[in-house]
UniProtKB/TrEMBL annotation:
Keywords: Hydrolase. Its cofactor is Mg(2+). PANTHER family: 8-OXO-DGTP DIPHOSPHATASE-RELATED, GDP-MANNOSE MANNOSYL HYDROLASE. It comes from Streptomyces polyasparticus. It holds the Pfam family Methyltransf_25. Residues 234-253 are annotated as: Disordered. PROSITE patterns: NUDIX. This is NUDIX domain-containing protein.
Amino acid sequence: MTDIASASSTSAVRETWTRYGRVQMERGYMPAVPERVRWGFWDGVGPGAEVLGPIRGRRVLDIGSGPGHHAVHFAREHGALVDAVELSGTQHQRAASHFGDEPGVRFVHADVVDHLRTTEPYDAAYGICTFGCLDPHHVLPALRDGLRNDAPLVFSALHTNMHGHGPSTTVAPRQEVILLKDQEPIPSPTWALTPQLWEDLLTGYGFHVEHSEVLRAPEADNPVAVHLVRARRRPVHRPRTTSRPRTAQPPRPHAAIGVGAIVLSEQGLLLGRHRRGTVELPGGTVETSDRSLEETAVRELREETGLVARPEDVRLLGTLLDHVGGVVRVTVGAVVTAWQGWPATQPNESVGDWQWWPLDRLPRQDLFECSAQILTAWRPDLPIDHAPAHFTPFAPNATAEEPRT
């Protein structure tokens, strides 16, 4: 399918589920968090969460998360760290307003393909009755690139509709409808494909199908059936290039590197006061235990303020380079896009007395030089004076993101 056709189908799916979510919001309806996951429409039919395998402590992608109740189940009952990605704005709003503070779940309003281009690979992914609403040629390549080697992908999709119309042998959407009580049926483009066609598609896009079954309605006169698939991302093995140090001696120290974290809420920008009198962003130097600059930002934020974030909640802006007393100073600015908790002074830390400062009422003096450099790299329009530093962005036109607490 061409990019234009794929974009058209994505737009149609967004319109369908935006309308559906609006109706459910107007009704005030919110499904309960299930005690047991069902991959079809009926309790007690088919396997539960075990088909996804062990996911405790692992990053899991919920594809088309709807009102978010399944993501919450996997986080609460199975200890997963779930990114619940939803294309529809109204569906995302339902989830975020009801479960926005749920530990272990992050709600993301995006096309899952766009989201996978900007995030670290996931340990597992699932979609519950959502794959029938996705163009396979659009989503499967993105999942191949967005899952770790050998990661499981479990999904269910419509197999037979209420009229007994079975799956198609061609990869093309057909028009189905979503029925809601006392409402006009909502048209929905749907990919209902035969098990063999799903397997061919998955194989062609780098997956191995481990399990496939059709879940049927328990009522004998109900023709509706759902296809459940468990696949796995095939490992990619490439010849490896080795490396070695130039000498056995460690490099001569000649630079200092630190990270400053921008935490922006509806109340303003988070700043604290150092015991030496300067007002600063949360942050500090990179330690040998940090595996990435994102981890440095997360660690310093937790140690200094008590706020809890994840490395994937951190967006690096770029590097600021200057020289102080003959030492090269490298400062990395970072935007924290999601966190939990409330900032408070932490014992034995140099910075405390954390406050939210509106961007148009920042402190007029004593702003720490590195924090000032980061803030003007982030928002060049801020009226902040500081010593010059050369800024190299990690991404062009980096701008602030909406806060998510």
